Structure formats: structure tokens, C-alpha cells
Amino acid sequence: MDESDGSGPDSTRRALLALTVLAPALGAFRGAQGGHAGDGAAALAQAVAAYHRATIGSDVATLGRLVADDYMLVNSDSSVQAKPSYLADFRVPGFRLDPYTVEEPFRRIWGNAALDGGSMQLSWTSEGRRQSRHLRFVHAWIMQGGRWRLAFSQLTRIPDA
Q1: How many CB atoms sit inside 10 A of residue 145's CB?
Q2: Nearest of 115, 118, 125, 89 to residue 104 by alpha carbon
Q3: Least crowded by CB within 10 Å, which of 129, 141, 149, 151?
Q4: What pTM value is reported for the model?
Q5: For residue range 83-122, what is the model confidence (pLDDT) as tens digits?
């Protein structure tokens, strides 16, 4: 398999492995944030729930507060979006995500860094066309200014059976 363009399943695995390796190191910089692990877990759970509500509700203001300024999204088609482009999608007239359920959820917290993910059947309407994809996702969250912010997302399409 030619990996010269950096795309494909192996590059996705490398990116996820890098996140898994780096997340504990990021947690080492906990420093002045303090707090108990349980407090961080509860605050992260609230941020994740708010993110899902805002995503389904196209609540750009809330998404803007939850997503870090240097946010990066790697879509299931391997395209990459920064925060401004990501938020602009929710402002497109007629764009609407359907409610979804996270399956196979997981969450790992290392101090001020966390991974959250699972799989979902994502369906949406854009430009009058219905689309749907079965996806596996991982979100990297960081503690910034005393609150959890989404820093990175990776969406991977699950092939149809």
C-alpha cells in the first residue's frame, strides 16, 4: 500500500497511537490546575454531554466555547478542518445533524488531557441531500483555563458489512 500521501488506515492508526502515547505526557503538565481526578471526570462528562447537545442542535455559540482555538478535525474522508471551517458547517442553511447514540463509548483521563470516543451512525442533511455514515471517533480534550476544551477529533468510517 502506498502511504506517500499519509492517508489510509495505517496513518489513522499511527495518529491514534500518537494520541494514546502523548496523552499521559500531556497530563504530566497538570501544574497549577489542581483538583481531584473525580472532579475532572465529572467536568469532562459535562463538557462531552454539552458538546453532543450543541452538535445535534447546531448551537454554534456553545461549540465555539467548547472547541479550542487551535482545534483540528480529521474527517472520515481524510479532509482536515480547523475551528473556523468546522463551525461554519453548522451555519450553512439547511445543514442539520440527526440525533445519534454513542455506542462502545470509552473515556481515558490523564490529568489535563483526555480521550473520549466510540462509534455512531451519523446521519445529516446538507444542501437538501441526506447522508449517513457509520463512524468510529476519538476526541482529544484538554483542560484550558479551568475547563475542558475539545482540541482534536478523528473520524474513521466503518465499512458496511
Answers
A1: 6
A2: 118
A3: 129
A4: 0.76
A5: 999 999 999 998 999 999 999 999 999 999 999 999 999 9
